[in-house]
Amino acid sequence: MRKFLPYVLVAVLLPAFPSVSYPSELSHFKELGKLGEERNKPKLWESARLFFKKYPRSDRVPDVRLMLADAEDEPDRAVSLYRVLTDKYRYYPRRDYAFCRICEINYLRSRWQDVVKDAAEAERAFPRSPYLYSMRR
To answer: Minimal CA–CA distance to 119: which of 105, 129, 132?
Structure first.
């Protein structure tokens, strides 16, 4: 009986160690949110890269992509990050917000034809969006 005790202990305790040493998906996501609020772009990108690698099929991947787009300072890069959300995540509930941000950035950069095109696409996809007025400017 004493011979098997160490094996039993290892079998019982071993599954507990990975959950202690690695953060859960939710805690990693909350950490990303804090980094996004702090506007700590280098740490946000590094942490997001690890999140994508560790949880590639997570339902929170579009939210992380939105955080990266919101934190981006360069307008063309931000538009391309928002475009990933509008093109690849058709059922993402905050997709209308991504369209709104694309329209705002194009409006501020005086890209009128892009504003009209993107606003029309957003209006077709989201006729009841609270951001619709912002996109129609």
So the answer is: 132
